[in-house]
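ARCHIVE RECORD
Type: protein–small molecule complex
Small molecule: zinc ion
Source of inputs: curated submission
Record status: active
Notes field left blank by submitter.
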Amino acid sequence: MSGFEREPGLDMVPSYEAPIQYPTLDALQARLGEIFSERDRVYFDERYARIRLFENGVADLFDGLRRSQEAEDFEIPCARVVARIFCIANSFERLSVANGMMEKFPIKGCAYCGASPCVCAGNRGEVQLATQNEIQQNWSLRQWQRHLDNLYGEPNRARGIWFATTRLAVETNELVAAEDNIRLMTIEEAKRAYEHELADGLAWTVAIANILGVDLQKATEDRFGNGCNSCGSVPCQCLRHNMQQVKFG
Ligand SMILES: [Zn+2]
Ligand SMILES: [Zn+2]
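STRUCTURE (tokenized, with ligand):
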């Protein structure tokens, strides 16, 4: 349904349908930083405002899903959510969403039940954080999308698009909770907490893309590969983001 081949394992080699500009998740995060960090520092100096922007993108997904569940209608809304996850990440210096992804979504299987594909969906115990590794460090967003489809595609498709989108909304609450408690954390602890929460947010965004059949790498590069989607500049020269919801249809 999603069009992604299932070939789990350490030697997972991507068969790209199209060449990609940003070959790792870190490179994509850096690219979004290059375009938007300056603007975000000026207009979104408080992290709550960035979380609010992310929340706004999630609300757009809910709104869009009432009208359509066609992949082509969700390329831009999904790309915006990815960009807003990186917008939060880039409020820290050197916070890598890929680090959180590696710890929560290891190659060998689900970080909760250990199985690949996961067999514990919806019935999770304690997470076993994995170690960061060179293989996943070099994965593109597209490889992460395929990996997560191998692990969780089937249970996620069974539970449906509304479940996945609701779980993404829950992640916005967890980010707010992390920010509420940030004064009780060291900078290192805060970065760790955010790496894990943002990885969860990205994973649910990927889950949504997998259910709808959106190629997230292509969608994100189509949107941001040539600079800001609005002004075309790097760095972006736009005014403050419009926080109104996008209109679908
Ligand atoms: Zn599992
Ligand atoms: Zn711009």
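CURATOR ANNOTATION: The mean pLDDT is 90.
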